[in-house]
Amino acid sequence: MDDAPDPEALRRFKIIPFTAMNPAQKAYADAVMAGPTAATGSAAVVKGATFLGAPFNVYLRSPELAQTLRQTAEYLRFKTSLPKKLNEFAILVTARQWGSQYEWFAHHRLALKEGLNPAIAEELAQGRRPTGMDADETAIYNFSQELHTKHEVSDATYKAVADRFGEQGVVDLIAVSGYYVMVSMILNVDRTPMPGGAKPPLPPLK
Questions:
Q1: Does 6 map to a domain?
Q2: 70 lies in which domain range?
Q3: Tens digits of per-residue pLDDT, 66-92?
Q4: Contact between 29 and 56 (Cβ < 8 Å)
Q5: Cβ–Cβ < 8 Å for 18, 28
């Protein structure tokens, strides 16, 4: 007999169906469903579903904040100046730093779709510095890793990103890293379960 707790029962922010949302929550949910995230195959935003998954379900608790974050997220996901593969790579670095299982689950497939080498993602998942990175990937990894672990970046690390992607690229990289730290916090506090009972993809780090 399996006595393991139901992952959904561990979720702190219970799902709010569309039918139970107040007007401000419904306006936010409608905007998310009509936005670009719904076209990515996200398990959290499924056409025809009766609810939003996390982190959107958590954002519903603060609808005005949610609308502001939606605009920020849509820029960082779909309008950023960084190449999509590198943007997704930075998100994976953040997910690994925070041990955010759902964030990794959601963005790993997107990173691979945009051309990230699966071997690079696997080494990152294992907590190792990936081998075989090209110059652009190395610049993004070094910047993101230093920012997360040292809370600053060296001149050489800054220059490597600025030379490739300009000052806007530097700012967009900082912003996507910071935004997904917040998302990781939300998902971890919520204890968001894996869709369909999938196994958590990130091993614990020693």
A1: no
A2: 11-78
A3: 999 999 999 999 999 999 999 999 999
A4: yes
A5: no
